[in-house]
Amino acid sequence: MSLYTVARDDFKNARRSYAVLGVIGVLTAIVVLIFAAEMNQYDHPYRTLFDVSFFLFLTFPIILAPLTYLSIAGDRDGGAIKYAMGLPNSRGEYVFGKLVSRLGVTLVAVALSIGVAFLFSLVTFVNAPDPVRFVKFALVSLLFAFSFVGIFVGVSAMTSKRSRAMLGVFGAYFVLVPFWFGFLPFVSLTNILSTATDLFGVTISENTGRLIQSLSPATSYLYATEIVYQGVLPTPYGSLNSNFVDPPNEIYRQFWFNALVMFAWGAVSLFAGYVSFRRSELG
Fold first, then answer.
1. Is the separation of the CB atoms in 219 and 213 below 8 Å?
2. Would you write out the chain's pLDDT as a tens digit for each of its 283 residues?
3. CA triple 260-57-38, angle to 5 deg
4. Which of 9, 139, 193, 244 is 20 to 30 A from 106 via CA?
5. Any idea where the domains of the chain sit in the sequence?
6. Residues near 120 by beta carbon (within 8 Å), at least 6 away in sequence
């Protein structure tokens, strides 16, 4: 058995799962609903893509959780891992095969949701959608998905129980999205940094604070979507201008930097999970 075989078999099994159908269906339905809600509010579909990016930033990891957190921990907890490891394949092929299959399902979900949204906006918005912008948005969103699929599969590889995998996945989501971005008024990375700097009598510049915030894959995703709006800035939409109107001179707003952050989170997390899984006693 090879990585390809592991990925193929897992993909075949996963596509029959209600969780997989739910991920694809829910993502597509909500993205299209956002476009439907705004078709009479904005003339340009790219403005709605801006709102979709915030939806994905906040909820896409949660949508991906049922697809990924049991990818390996479920096999270990249910005993199926003994069969998989009894076949002539390495632990590395098994772990990375799981990543490929779950990422393949995610690719289908992203492509379908953005594709349907493009067709919907083509017939409902005053101005026709730009296919290049939609393709850019889909590719950036897929890279964002890779970061969290890698994190969640990595967490799954580190645990042998379903409950631990679930706690690990939602713990990772809490730290990397609401805590890191600063949604919570008292428990947030921003407040911790502020408290620490006050204790040591130092200050952190605004750019340094934003750079630290951008080191989360979720925040880096928002910055990376700036490439979608190149050529239309400034726009008639104030909220879009306030986020992207200035030239991206700071490193944390450069696309290459944010793409690297997202890729690194997914790759490093998966590798850490593989190292843990390789050393585990599978019983």
1. yes
2. 577 777 777 777 766 677 788 888 999 999 999 999 999 999 999 999 999 999 999 999 999 998 899 888 888 877 777 776 666 668 888 888 889 999 999 999 999 999 999 999 999 999 999 999 999 999 999 999 999 999 999 999 999 889 999 999 999 999 999 999 877 767 778 778 777 777 777 777 778 888 888 999 999 999 999 999 988 888 888 888 888 877 778 899 999 999 999 999 999 999 999 999 888 776 5
3. 130
4. 244
5. 3-279
6. 32, 35, 36, 39
Let me know how long the chain is. 283
Q: Rounded to an integer, what distance in angstroms lies between the CA atom of residue 125 and that of residue 245?
A: 23
Sorted by sequence, the CB contacts under 8 Å of residue 156 that are 6+ apart come out as 68, 69, 70, 71, 72, 73, 74, 98, 165, 168, 169, 273
DSSP state of 179: I
Residue corresponding to tokens 């009894």:
86
Tokens matching residue 211: 């750079």
The radius of gyration of the chain from alpha carbons, rounded to an integer in Å, stands at: 20
Q: Contact at 8 Å (CB) between 147 and 63?
A: no
pTM of the model: 0.92
Q: How far is CA 133 from CA 46, 50, 52, 279, in A?
A: 7, 11, 13, 44
Q: Please state, in angstroms and rounded to a whole number, the distance separating the CA atoms of residues 185 and 175.
A: 14
